[in-house]
Amino acid sequence: MSKLSNKIEAHDRSITEVLDDKKYMVDYFQREYKWEERHIEQLVSDLTSSFLNEYKTEHKRKDIENYNSYYLGPFVVSVKDGQRSIIDGQQRLTSLTLLLIYLNNLQKELGLSEKLESLIFSEKYGEMSFNIQVDERIICMEALFREGEYEPKEDDDESTLNMSARYSDIENAFPEEIKNHMLPYFIDWLKYNVILVEIIAYSDENAYTIFETMNDRGLNLTPTEMLKGFILSKFEDSKNRQKANELWKTSMQELHAYDKDEDQRFIQAWFRAQYAETIRPGKAGSKNEDFEKIGTRFHSWFRDNLAKVGIEQEDADGFQSFIEKDFKFFLSAYKHILIAERKLSDSLQHIYYIRRWGIANSLSYPLLLSSLKTTDSSEIVIEKMDLVARYIEAFVVRRSVNFRKFASSSIRYTMYTLVKEIRRTEVHELNSILDRKMDEMEESWSGIQNFRLHGQNRVFVKFLLSRLTAFVEQQSGLNSSFEKYYHNPGGKPFEVEHIWADKFAKHKDEFEQEADFQEYRNRIGALVLLPRGTNQSYGAKPYPEKLNHYIKENLLVQSLCSLTYVNNPNFLTMKNKLGLPFKSHDVFLKTDIADRQNLYQAICESIWGNDTYAEEDQIN
After folding, report:
1. C-alpha angle 44/38/496, rounded to 5°?
2. pTM of the full structure
3. What pLDDT is recorded for position 4?
4. Are 441 and 395 in contact (CB under 8 A)?
């Protein structure tokens, strides 16, 4: 082995030094991009909070040079024959590239001209090549760079689908207060003050050794471990300290079985739900407050805010009770959430739904835990959390059918205000507050009248149709579930089907322009769910021919057929009991789509209307 191949280098690098006019290959063994929404949200939150903590309105751009640096971690590259291959750190570098693409698009919208392109791609002989180049991702990357969106295709690989989704998550997570004259300051800070450690090996063998060492050994203490150390140091009795340590250790192992960072998410959610009093206002020059500090350094926040937690500095019994009572109680509640997110159950079904379509868990988890009291029975805990989850689901569905986003950056203050408002409430108080919040929403269910499928909301449309379909069947006494229609484990997946075939020429008696035809064709009332394969087999047929097949499908599809209204007592009882305007449609014209829009709106109101909370109030 040559002297060069044995060499290993490590250097602090700014993002500009890492990406400007550099080319990286991605090693085959870590080819897929796997980051999830929570990872992107944490990255954007950490970066923007760190910047906002430094920024002052009187600062000039040159003052950015004196801002604190932000350490983003190490990455490992192998250099051979002049080519740089990423061995460790691909997830972070790809996410940074997505953030840079978003910032490049945002600054153009704002009429700015910051130079970011060279951090994203370089051009040679008129051809663009991205600085982190993976052939399968090029089409998606180009679409995001040029248009700010990418419509996923059926044959896209996992990385492409994740990149498209994570770009949308960046849009949702990026704070509104930076989307103005402050943006160039943030871009400067990101380019020059965010630091990574570049570790370079000149042989694959050394590169993989470094990779294994970094991932297997020598890890620093996490905030969770530092919190434990501080709390246990306050115990006076060594046996009680040992007992608490074993409880903590076992509990963390249980959480790590879900995800390696689940312990930190739990403590962040618990502290925000029960103790945080302040949140950073959405204006320039604002400092991080309880909500943000808990998100970044909850161990030091806890040490500095014992009064908010209700413990005195030298109260050994208080620290012991905190572990044996509070910690155990909220850990148990949090595990209920984790289980409910993964398996649909009757008692916490709405937690399952909001995992598929809901707000960021940095907001939803504190909301779910905020109304709880350590004196609550397990039945009360479940009842409270399901009520809150039901509110979150109704909130996001109502926003979605009105084409309103619910990005964490735009609703964080509203949702955290609600966290404090419902904190440690009784069930009847919780119901009353949530009922009032639903009444106060600007968006109404009438938004369904103009709601339609477009390139960026297909996932939500499938979610909505799955909920409506399963609800109608369950209320009619059929063995049905949302799970079956949303992802159907072990069976054919269901797909969104247009009732009208894509044949404008067949509808010229009602439409002069094809654009108007397409707008009606994509309305929610003209959409149903059908199994894959079934969809393709008669999707292009005229409506009267489809009716003969629809009678064999799910009940929401069957309701188009007149035969469904004959000798079907359970369906008719459900229809009359809920007052749903079901009717058959022998033909399917514009007016029929309007009728179906009305029907879908009525079903939405039956599922998510305020009557749910009113009924709970009467019970309690």
Report:
1. 115
2. 0.80
3. 53
4. yes
